[in-house]
Protein backbone atom coordinates (compact mmCIF):
# COMPACT_ATOMS: atom_id res chain seq x y z
CA UNK A 1 0.00 0.00 0.00
CA UNK A 2 2.82 2.42 0.85
CA UNK A 3 4.55 1.61 -2.44
CA UNK A 4 1.30 2.24 -4.32
CA UNK A 5 0.85 5.58 -2.54
CA UNK A 6 4.41 6.66 -3.41
CA UNK A 7 3.98 5.62 -7.04
CA UNK A 8 0.67 7.47 -7.26
CA UNK A 9 2.25 10.62 -5.82
CA UNK A 10 5.08 10.43 -8.35
CA UNK A 11 2.58 9.84 -11.16
CA UNK A 12 0.52 12.86 -10.16
CA UNK A 13 3.61 15.05 -9.91
CA UNK A 14 4.78 13.97 -13.36
CA UNK A 15 1.30 14.56 -14.79
CA UNK A 16 1.21 18.06 -13.32
CA UNK A 17 4.64 18.86 -14.74
CA UNK A 18 3.72 17.52 -18.19
CA UNK A 19 0.44 19.46 -18.13
CA UNK A 20 2.24 22.64 -17.17
CA UNK A 21 4.90 22.10 -19.84
CA UNK A 22 2.17 21.55 -22.45
CA UNK A 23 0.45 24.79 -21.47
CA UNK A 24 3.72 26.70 -21.54
CA UNK A 25 4.70 25.27 -24.91
CA UNK A 26 1.36 25.89 -26.60
CA UNK A 27 1.08 29.33 -25.03
CA UNK A 28 4.45 30.38 -26.40
CA UNK A 29 3.02 30.54 -29.93
CA UNK A 30 0.49 33.28 -29.08
CA UNK A 31 1.23 37.01 -28.79
CA UNK A 32 -0.87 37.26 -25.62
CA UNK A 33 -2.09 34.48 -23.32
CA UNK A 34 -4.78 35.36 -20.78
CA UNK A 35 -5.66 33.04 -17.90
CA UNK A 36 -9.23 34.08 -17.08
CA UNK A 37 -12.37 32.78 -15.46
CA UNK A 38 -15.17 30.83 -17.07
CA UNK A 39 -18.93 31.52 -16.90
CA UNK A 40 -20.09 35.14 -17.24
CA UNK A 41 -16.58 36.47 -16.64
CA UNK A 42 -15.36 34.36 -19.51
CA UNK A 43 -18.06 35.83 -21.74
CA UNK A 44 -16.98 39.32 -20.70
CA UNK A 45 -13.34 38.59 -21.46
CA UNK A 46 -14.34 37.20 -24.86
CA UNK A 47 -16.08 40.49 -25.60
CA UNK A 48 -13.06 42.47 -24.41
CA UNK A 49 -10.65 40.40 -26.50
CA UNK A 50 -12.81 40.94 -29.59
CA UNK A 51 -12.75 44.70 -29.04
CA UNK A 52 -9.01 44.76 -28.39
CA UNK A 53 -8.37 42.74 -31.55
CA UNK A 54 -9.97 45.52 -33.58
CA UNK A 55 -7.23 47.82 -32.33
CA UNK A 56 -4.54 45.14 -32.71
CA UNK A 57 -5.69 43.08 -35.72
CA UNK A 58 -2.38 41.26 -36.08
CA UNK A 59 -2.22 40.10 -32.46
CA UNK A 60 -2.73 36.39 -31.81
CA UNK A 61 -4.57 36.27 -28.48
CA UNK A 62 -5.30 33.07 -26.57
CA UNK A 63 -7.99 33.34 -23.89
CA UNK A 64 -8.16 30.46 -21.40
CA UNK A 65 -11.50 30.26 -19.59
CA UNK A 66 -10.65 28.32 -16.46
CA UNK A 67 -13.03 27.21 -13.68
CA UNK A 68 -12.59 28.92 -10.34
CA UNK A 69 -12.09 25.55 -8.63
CA UNK A 70 -8.57 25.07 -9.98
CA UNK A 71 -7.56 28.50 -11.27
CA UNK A 72 -5.60 29.35 -8.12
CA UNK A 73 -3.50 26.19 -8.27
CA UNK A 74 -2.79 26.58 -11.98
CA UNK A 75 -1.60 30.16 -11.55
CA UNK A 76 0.45 29.36 -8.48
CA UNK A 77 2.19 26.40 -10.13
CA UNK A 78 2.97 28.34 -13.30
CA UNK A 79 4.36 31.42 -11.59
CA UNK A 80 6.28 29.49 -8.97
CA UNK A 81 8.03 27.50 -11.69
CA UNK A 82 8.46 30.63 -13.89
CA UNK A 83 7.08 28.87 -16.96
CA UNK A 84 6.07 32.07 -18.75
CA UNK A 85 2.80 30.33 -19.62
CA UNK A 86 0.58 33.37 -19.03
CA UNK A 87 0.86 37.06 -19.89
CA UNK A 88 -2.19 38.11 -17.87
CA UNK A 89 -3.81 36.34 -14.93
CA UNK A 90 -7.22 36.84 -13.33
CA UNK A 91 -7.12 36.57 -9.54
CA UNK A 92 -9.45 36.63 -6.57
CA UNK A 93 -8.32 39.53 -4.38
CA UNK A 94 -7.38 37.12 -1.57
CA UNK A 95 -4.67 35.56 -3.77
CA UNK A 96 -2.77 38.74 -4.54
CA UNK A 97 -1.04 39.14 -1.13
CA UNK A 98 0.64 35.76 -1.65
CA UNK A 99 1.50 36.42 -5.29
CA UNK A 100 2.92 39.88 -4.50
CA UNK A 101 4.89 38.68 -1.47
CA UNK A 102 6.48 35.90 -3.50
CA UNK A 103 7.59 38.33 -6.20
CA UNK A 104 5.52 36.62 -8.88
CA UNK A 105 3.86 39.76 -10.31
CA UNK A 106 5.26 42.58 -12.41
CA UNK A 107 4.84 46.14 -11.03
CA UNK A 108 2.32 48.26 -12.95
CA UNK A 109 2.71 51.95 -13.81
CA UNK A 110 0.66 54.42 -11.76
CA UNK A 111 -0.72 55.85 -15.01
CA UNK A 112 -3.08 52.85 -15.27
CA UNK A 113 -5.08 54.25 -12.32
CA UNK A 114 -7.27 57.36 -12.37
CA UNK A 115 -9.72 59.08 -10.00
CA UNK A 116 -12.75 57.44 -11.63
CA UNK A 117 -11.75 53.99 -10.33
CA UNK A 118 -13.33 53.09 -6.99
CA UNK A 119 -10.50 53.57 -4.49
CA UNK A 120 -11.38 50.58 -2.30
CA UNK A 121 -10.99 48.24 -5.27
CA UNK A 122 -7.69 49.70 -6.45
CA UNK A 123 -6.18 49.42 -2.97
CA UNK A 124 -6.36 45.62 -3.13
CA UNK A 125 -3.81 45.58 -5.93
CA UNK A 126 -1.14 47.44 -3.94
CA UNK A 127 1.66 45.91 -1.90
CA UNK A 128 2.29 47.19 1.65
CA UNK A 129 4.87 49.64 0.25
CA UNK A 130 2.23 51.15 -2.05
CA UNK A 131 3.49 49.67 -5.33
CA UNK A 132 0.75 48.68 -7.78
CA UNK A 133 0.68 45.06 -8.99
CA UNK A 134 -2.94 44.40 -10.02
CA UNK A 135 -6.00 46.26 -11.26
CA UNK A 136 -9.63 45.56 -10.33
CA UNK A 137 -11.72 44.30 -13.24
CA UNK A 138 -14.88 43.02 -11.48
CA UNK A 139 -16.43 45.17 -8.74
CA UNK A 140 -18.03 42.45 -6.63
CA UNK A 141 -19.31 43.51 -3.22
CA UNK A 142 -21.52 41.73 -0.70
CA UNK A 143 -24.98 43.29 -0.34
CA UNK A 144 -27.86 42.83 2.12
CA UNK A 145 -31.40 42.24 0.80
CA UNK A 146 -34.84 42.74 2.30
CA UNK A 147 -38.45 42.52 1.09
CA UNK A 148 -39.98 45.99 0.90
CA UNK A 149 -43.53 44.61 0.74
CA UNK A 150 -43.13 42.59 3.94
CA UNK A 151 -41.54 45.46 5.83
CA UNK A 152 -44.40 47.71 4.71
CA UNK A 153 -46.97 45.11 5.79
CA UNK A 154 -45.56 45.09 9.35
CA UNK A 155 -44.74 48.82 9.38
CA UNK A 156 -41.00 48.18 9.73
CA UNK A 157 -38.12 50.33 8.51
CA UNK A 158 -35.06 49.15 6.59
CA UNK A 159 -32.50 47.73 9.05
CA UNK A 160 -29.85 50.13 10.34
CA UNK A 161 -28.15 47.59 12.61
CA UNK A 162 -28.21 43.88 13.33
CA UNK A 163 -30.70 44.33 16.17
CA UNK A 164 -33.11 45.63 13.52
CA UNK A 165 -32.34 42.61 11.33
CA UNK A 166 -33.26 40.29 14.21
CA UNK A 167 -36.48 42.20 14.89
CA UNK A 168 -37.50 42.01 11.23
CA UNK A 169 -36.69 38.28 11.17
CA UNK A 170 -38.79 37.64 14.26
CA UNK A 171 -41.74 39.65 12.94
CA UNK A 172 -41.86 38.48 9.33
CA UNK A 173 -41.33 34.83 10.23
CA UNK A 174 -44.99 34.89 11.31
CA UNK A 175 -45.90 34.85 7.59
CA UNK A 176 -46.72 31.34 6.37
CA UNK A 177 -43.99 29.98 4.14
CA UNK A 178 -41.60 32.85 4.84
CA UNK A 179 -38.31 32.62 6.74
CA UNK A 180 -37.22 35.76 8.56
CA UNK A 181 -33.71 35.54 7.11
CA UNK A 182 -31.62 33.34 4.87
CA UNK A 183 -27.88 32.92 4.37
CA UNK A 184 -25.25 30.41 3.24
CA UNK A 185 -24.39 28.10 6.11
CA UNK A 186 -22.12 25.61 4.34
CA UNK A 187 -18.75 25.35 6.06
CA UNK A 188 -15.71 27.15 4.68
CA UNK A 189 -16.04 30.21 2.48
CA UNK A 190 -19.88 30.38 2.39
CA UNK A 191 -20.57 30.69 6.11
CA UNK A 192 -17.52 32.90 6.70
CA UNK A 193 -18.69 35.28 3.97
CA UNK A 194 -22.03 35.69 5.71
CA UNK A 195 -20.46 36.13 9.13
CA UNK A 196 -17.70 38.65 8.37
CA UNK A 197 -19.93 41.75 7.93
CA UNK A 198 -21.59 40.95 11.27
CA UNK A 199 -18.21 40.41 12.92
CA UNK A 200 -16.87 43.71 11.56
CA UNK A 201 -20.05 45.57 12.55
CA UNK A 202 -19.52 44.45 16.16
CA UNK A 203 -15.92 45.70 16.06
CA UNK A 204 -14.34 42.26 15.84
CA UNK A 205 -11.86 40.77 13.39
CA UNK A 206 -10.15 37.50 12.51
CA UNK A 207 -6.58 38.84 12.40
CA UNK A 208 -5.25 42.13 13.76
CA UNK A 209 -2.83 44.59 12.15
CA UNK A 210 0.13 42.72 13.69
CA UNK A 211 -0.87 39.43 12.10
CA UNK A 212 -2.21 37.83 15.28
CA UNK A 213 -5.40 35.76 15.59
CA UNK A 214 -8.03 37.82 17.44
CA UNK A 215 -11.18 35.88 16.60
CA UNK A 216 -11.59 34.77 20.25
CA UNK A 217 -12.74 38.18 21.52
CA UNK A 218 -15.80 39.68 23.26
CA UNK A 219 -16.70 41.48 20.02
CA UNK A 220 -16.57 38.26 18.00
CA UNK A 221 -18.62 36.46 20.64
CA UNK A 222 -21.34 39.13 20.49
CA UNK A 223 -21.38 38.87 16.70
CA UNK A 224 -21.58 35.08 16.74
CA UNK A 225 -24.40 35.10 19.28
CA UNK A 226 -26.33 37.41 16.95
CA UNK A 227 -25.62 35.01 14.09
CA UNK A 228 -27.05 32.14 16.16
CA UNK A 229 -30.10 34.23 17.08
CA UNK A 230 -30.78 34.90 13.40
CA UNK A 231 -30.40 31.21 12.60
CA UNK A 232 -33.53 30.53 14.66
CA UNK A 233 -35.59 32.38 12.02
CA UNK A 234 -33.82 30.88 9.01
CA UNK A 235 -34.79 27.69 7.12
CA UNK A 236 -34.23 24.59 9.25
CA UNK A 237 -31.46 23.25 7.02
CA UNK A 238 -29.72 26.61 6.51
CA UNK A 239 -26.47 25.12 7.87
CA UNK A 240 -26.04 23.35 4.53
CA UNK A 241 -27.35 26.16 2.31
CA UNK A 242 -25.21 27.29 -0.59
CA UNK A 243 -25.68 30.04 -3.15
CA UNK A 244 -28.34 28.13 -5.10
CA UNK A 245 -30.55 27.68 -2.04
CA UNK A 246 -30.26 31.33 -0.99
CA UNK A 247 -31.07 32.55 -4.48
CA UNK A 248 -34.00 30.15 -4.75
CA UNK A 249 -35.44 31.32 -1.42
CA UNK A 250 -35.25 34.95 -2.51
CA UNK A 251 -36.71 34.37 -5.97
CA UNK A 252 -39.61 32.34 -4.56
CA UNK A 253 -40.39 35.02 -1.98
CA UNK A 254 -39.64 32.53 0.81
CA UNK A 255 -37.31 34.84 2.76
CA UNK A 256 -37.80 38.32 4.20
CA UNK A 257 -34.07 39.11 4.32
CA UNK A 258 -30.79 37.74 3.00
CA UNK A 259 -27.52 38.43 4.80
CA UNK A 260 -25.50 37.90 1.64
CA UNK A 261 -26.39 38.80 -1.94
CA UNK A 262 -23.87 39.24 -4.77
CA UNK A 263 -24.42 41.44 -7.86
CA UNK A 264 -24.55 38.48 -10.24
CA UNK A 265 -27.54 37.11 -8.32
CA UNK A 266 -29.64 40.25 -8.50
CA UNK A 267 -30.98 40.46 -12.10
CA UNK A 268 -32.97 37.24 -11.63
CA UNK A 269 -34.91 38.90 -8.80
CA UNK A 270 -36.50 41.31 -11.30
CA UNK A 271 -37.05 38.69 -13.99
CA UNK A 272 -40.74 37.62 -13.98
CA UNK A 273 -39.74 34.29 -15.52
CA UNK A 274 -37.63 33.47 -12.46
CA UNK A 275 -38.96 35.59 -9.61
CA UNK A 276 -42.21 35.92 -7.67
CA UNK A 277 -41.07 39.15 -6.03
CA UNK A 278 -40.24 41.37 -9.01
CA UNK A 279 -39.41 44.89 -7.84
CA UNK A 280 -39.94 44.05 -4.16
CA UNK A 281 -36.40 43.17 -3.10
CA UNK A 282 -34.34 46.15 -1.93
CA UNK A 283 -30.57 46.09 -1.58
CA UNK A 284 -28.26 47.96 0.75
CA UNK A 285 -24.90 47.61 2.42
CA UNK A 286 -24.95 45.14 5.34
CA UNK A 287 -26.04 46.98 8.51
CA UNK A 288 -23.62 48.31 11.10
CA UNK A 289 -23.78 47.89 14.87
CA UNK A 290 -20.99 49.18 17.10
CA UNK A 291 -19.28 50.31 13.91
CA UNK A 292 -20.69 51.37 10.56
CA UNK A 293 -21.49 49.08 7.64
CA UNK A 294 -18.59 47.00 6.32
CA UNK A 295 -19.61 45.22 3.11
CA UNK A 296 -17.20 42.45 2.16
CA UNK A 297 -15.32 43.00 -1.09
CA UNK A 298 -15.02 40.13 -3.54
CA UNK A 299 -12.95 41.80 -6.24
CA UNK A 300 -11.53 39.99 -9.24
CA UNK A 301 -8.23 41.46 -10.42
CA UNK A 302 -5.91 41.22 -13.39
CA UNK A 303 -2.12 41.19 -13.12
CA UNK A 304 0.92 40.56 -15.28
CA UNK A 305 3.17 37.70 -14.08
CA UNK A 306 6.82 38.57 -13.62
CA UNK A 307 7.72 35.86 -16.14
CA UNK A 308 5.22 37.07 -18.79
CA UNK A 309 6.66 36.82 -22.29
CA UNK A 310 4.57 39.66 -23.73
CA UNK A 311 4.31 42.16 -20.89
CA UNK A 312 4.00 45.26 -23.08
CA UNK A 313 0.96 43.96 -24.97
CA UNK A 314 -0.47 42.63 -21.70
CA UNK A 315 -0.27 46.11 -20.21
CA UNK A 316 -2.06 47.55 -23.25
CA UNK A 317 -4.85 44.99 -22.86
CA UNK A 318 -5.13 45.75 -19.14
CA UNK A 319 -5.55 49.46 -19.92
CA UNK A 320 -8.22 48.59 -22.50
CA UNK A 321 -10.06 46.20 -20.16
CA UNK A 322 -10.26 48.75 -17.34
CA UNK A 323 -11.22 51.70 -19.55
CA UNK A 324 -14.59 53.38 -19.08
CA UNK A 325 -15.80 52.29 -22.51
CA UNK A 326 -14.98 48.61 -22.01
CA UNK A 327 -16.30 48.57 -18.44
CA UNK A 328 -19.58 50.08 -19.67
CA UNK A 329 -20.01 47.37 -22.30
CA UNK A 330 -19.22 44.60 -19.83
CA UNK A 331 -21.54 46.10 -17.22
CA UNK A 332 -24.42 45.84 -19.69
CA UNK A 333 -23.65 42.09 -19.79
CA UNK A 334 -24.05 41.89 -16.00
CA UNK A 335 -20.43 42.18 -14.90
CA UNK A 336 -20.06 44.63 -11.96
CA UNK A 337 -17.80 47.55 -12.91
CA UNK A 338 -15.05 49.18 -10.88
CA UNK A 339 -15.54 52.74 -12.17
CA UNK A 340 -17.80 55.31 -10.53
CA UNK A 341 -18.88 56.82 -13.85
CA UNK A 342 -20.13 53.42 -15.04
CA UNK A 343 -22.24 52.95 -11.91
CA UNK A 344 -23.69 56.42 -12.55
CA UNK A 345 -24.42 55.84 -16.24
CA UNK A 346 -28.13 56.64 -16.74
CA UNK A 347 -28.82 53.76 -19.13
CA UNK A 348 -27.18 51.25 -16.78
CA UNK A 349 -28.99 52.60 -13.72
CA UNK A 350 -32.24 52.11 -15.63
CA UNK A 351 -31.20 48.54 -16.40
CA UNK A 352 -29.82 47.82 -12.90
CA UNK A 353 -31.86 49.82 -10.35
CA UNK A 354 -29.58 48.77 -7.50
CA UNK A 355 -26.45 50.40 -8.99
CA UNK A 356 -26.51 53.52 -6.72
CA UNK A 357 -26.65 51.32 -3.61
CA UNK A 358 -24.07 48.95 -5.04
CA UNK A 359 -21.64 51.82 -5.56
CA UNK A 360 -22.14 53.00 -1.96
CA UNK A 361 -21.43 49.48 -0.71
CA UNK A 362 -18.37 49.17 -2.94
CA UNK A 363 -16.94 52.49 -1.72
CA UNK A 364 -17.48 51.43 1.91
CA UNK A 365 -16.27 47.89 1.21
CA UNK A 366 -13.78 46.06 3.35
CA UNK A 367 -11.30 43.43 2.21
CA UNK A 368 -10.80 40.07 3.83
CA UNK A 369 -7.55 39.87 5.84
CA UNK A 370 -4.58 40.54 3.57
CA UNK A 371 -2.55 37.49 4.50
CA UNK A 372 -0.81 34.94 2.28
CA UNK A 373 -2.82 31.92 3.42
CA UNK A 374 -6.33 33.32 3.90
CA UNK A 375 -7.95 30.28 2.25
CA UNK A 376 -6.60 27.96 4.94
CA UNK A 377 -7.62 30.32 7.72
CA UNK A 378 -11.07 30.79 6.19
CA UNK A 379 -11.54 27.02 6.09
CA UNK A 380 -10.70 26.66 9.79
CA UNK A 381 -13.03 29.47 10.80
CA UNK A 382 -15.78 28.16 8.54
CA UNK A 383 -15.61 24.72 10.13
CA UNK A 384 -16.02 26.23 13.59
CA UNK A 385 -18.91 28.45 12.56
CA UNK A 386 -20.86 25.60 11.04
CA UNK A 387 -20.40 23.52 14.19
CA UNK A 388 -22.10 26.34 16.06
CA UNK A 389 -24.98 26.50 13.57
CA UNK A 390 -25.51 22.74 13.88
CA UNK A 391 -25.42 22.90 17.68
CA UNK A 392 -22.23 20.86 18.07
CA UNK A 393 -20.25 23.67 19.69
CA UNK A 394 -21.12 26.68 21.79
CA UNK A 395 -20.11 30.08 20.38
CA UNK A 396 -17.46 30.36 23.11
CA UNK A 397 -15.94 26.97 22.35
CA UNK A 398 -16.02 27.54 18.58
CA UNK A 399 -14.15 30.84 18.75
CA UNK A 400 -11.60 29.41 21.15
CA UNK A 401 -11.06 26.40 18.88
CA UNK A 402 -10.78 28.57 15.75
CA UNK A 403 -8.25 30.84 17.42
CA UNK A 404 -6.12 27.91 18.58
CA UNK A 405 -6.04 26.46 15.06
CA UNK A 406 -5.49 29.75 13.21
CA UNK A 407 -2.63 31.01 15.41
CA UNK A 408 -0.04 28.37 14.35
CA UNK A 409 -1.01 28.82 10.69
CA UNK A 410 -0.18 32.51 10.96
CA UNK A 411 3.09 31.72 12.72
CA UNK A 412 4.08 29.22 10.06
CA UNK A 413 3.26 31.70 7.28
CA UNK A 414 5.32 34.42 8.94
CA UNK A 415 8.39 32.18 9.20
CA UNK A 416 8.05 30.44 5.82
CA UNK A 417 10.79 30.90 3.23
CA UNK A 418 9.44 31.12 -0.33
Question: Would you spell out the secondary-structure blueprint of this structure?
Answer:
Layout: H1 2-27, E1 32-37, H2 39-55, E2 61-66, H3 68-80, E3 88-92, H4 96-101, H5 119-122, E4 134-138, E5 143-147, H6 148-153, H7 162-172, H8 189-201, H9 218-231, H10 243-251, E6 257-261, E7 281-284, E8 300-303, H11 311-321, H12 324-332, H13 340-343, H14 346-351, H15 355-363, H16 374-389, H17 395-415
Parallel strand pairs: 1-2, 1-3
Antiparallel strand pairs: 3-8, 4-8, 5-6, 5-7
Q: Describe it for me?
A:
- The protein is an alpha/beta fold and 418 residues long.
- The protein contains 17 helices and eight strands.
- It has helices spanning 2-27, 39-55, 68-80, 96-101, 119-122, 148-153, 162-172, 189-201, 218-231, 243-251, 311-321, 324-332, 340-343, 346-351, 355-363, 374-389, 395-415; strands at residues 32-37, 61-66, 88-92, 134-138, 143-147, 257-261, 281-284, 300-303.
- Strands 2-1-3-8-4 form a five-stranded mixed β-sheet. It has a three-stranded antiparallel β-sheet with strand order 6-5-7.
- α2 (39-55) links the parallel β1 (32-37) and β2 (61-66).
- α8 packs across α9, α8 packs across α16 (374-389) and α16 runs antiparallel to α17.
- The longest helix is centred in the N-terminal third of the chain and has 26 residues, at 2-27.
- It starts with a helix and ends with a helix.
